[in-house]
Amino acid sequence: FAQNQAHGEGAFENFKNAHDDNRCLASNGSCNGKSKPSLELLRNVPIEEMETSRDEEINRCKLYFAESSIPNGGFGMFTAVDLKKGDLVGKPDILVPIIDAHHDLDIWGTLNEVAWSNKLSRKCDYEEATGVDIFYPGFGAAINCHHSLENVEHGSDPIVDDAGLTWNQDPGTGAFSSYHGMTTEAQNDIEAGSELFISYGEDWFIDRTESIGYIPLQKDFIRANKIVKKLYQYFYDETPEVVGALWIFFRNSASERVAAALPQKIDEIEHAYEVGTARHSLPNFIRTPEWLQENAICADNIRADNSTIPQAGRGAFATRIILKDSIIAPAPVLHLPRNLMTTYVVIKDKDDEYINSDERIGQQVLLNYCFGHSNSSVLLLPYGPLSNLINHNRKEANAEIRWSHSRLHRQEWLSLSAEELTKEGFGLIMEFIALRDIAPGEEIFIDYGTDWEEAWNEHVREWVPPKDAEGEVIEQEYKSGNHLRHGFRKEMGFRDGVFPVSWLDISGT
Predict the structure, then answer these.
(1) pLDDT value at position 486?
(2) Distances (CA, A) of 212 to 122, 221, 233
(3) Which tens digits make up the pLDDT trace of 276-325?
(4) Rounded distance, CA 310 to CA 213, Å?
(5) Cβ 452 vs Cβ 492: under 8 Å
(6) Rounded-to-integer distance, Cα 113 and Cα 205, Å
(7) Does pTM surpass 0.90?
(8) Facing residues of 429 across strands?
(9) CB-CB contact of 79 with 190 (8 Å)
(10) CA separation for the pair 351, 193 (Å, rounded)
(11) For the CA atoms of 408, 412, 413, 417, what is the dihedral angle to 10 degrees?
């Protein structure tokens, strides 16, 4: 703004007015009679007069999504700015409760790898449920864990509300999660360029030893540091033969996890001693600004606020200018079986353990955050930061979702059958792309498709307030609105040609 003002007061005012006009939409959907943001005022500013400010807006990304520094770790989250202990990291996001989920973990698929229980589930109050798991996109699903380099942690309890809707008056209540505003904080000072790591808990790795191997825990890195220190301080001046023999002895004597934490080669001992075995194990733990700009995707182009669409709950709003054809948000997706969304009455078996009965209740609210096709058993659940909040608006869609061109996207999986896909893990990546220039504060919309729109219109036409056994409208708030039988449930759709034909395994009616 200062650059524009220096070039001329009129140019500055046009740019500022356009910015303020779009910010007002994010607050309540209208401002001095204006309800539809645009870039017209921005286009009236001469390019040479707004170039600096425009570039600053585009490049002011603080959070990136890129290939993890952990070998074979898929994607990870990186900070582009220095952070102090206690600083908020990224933007607050939603929590989606998974209520009394199917007790057969074999059908959970990749959701079992990112769903949270205990620590996060206690933040969601469902007294009548026998079990609650949590889907936390972004900093609960797209972030990795390294036991000796953990630098962020989950923040305070989420906000609980229904975006101004009441469950016994509005058909949109129960169609989205009531839990939002979940924050992530810096656990210690973090250097710009660092990959962000959060604790999954040791049990997560121990329970998966058979599939992922002996991943070192924090105590294993501590033990490895002691071995490296002893070898470096006392034996490093010995002959190469002596050092090699000692190195083999220490490695063979260590446990599997400690051995995995030790340097792989003798000539790496000095570096491991200087920086620690944990830091030594990840040479690309801190990336340069140039590397992030060239190889990463900005992950804080959007923020959450109440949607401008009636009954939609919360939406996603642009935090900066987003140019046509650029990536609005990364959207790695979990592939899930459709039957995972079905909810059942929970009973106790002969051993007094909770199990699912054959009596169906309905479907998880998580279904509303999935993409799919009515003729497929495959559902796709995006787990990038805040992208789950992008709403439907066919007439004013300013974005679309497409398959990523990233080399880490497993394009070949799109040719698998639905059954073959269930045997695969992580690797599918999509992206939300701008269909036109998008102004700061403008809500992001895509087209969910005709099936979804018709299903929603039918739900609104037929919706009636929930009633008790005597037929009276229930006035007391129901804490588990996300689990109500009358809540709208429907996966989002794609434009033609996006959903793989090979995944269509359910006959149409």
Answers:
(1) 64
(2) 28, 18, 33
(3) 999 999 999 999 999 999 999 999 999 999 999 999 999 999 999 999 99
(4) 49
(5) yes
(6) 10
(7) no
(8) 332
(9) yes
(10) 52
(11) 180
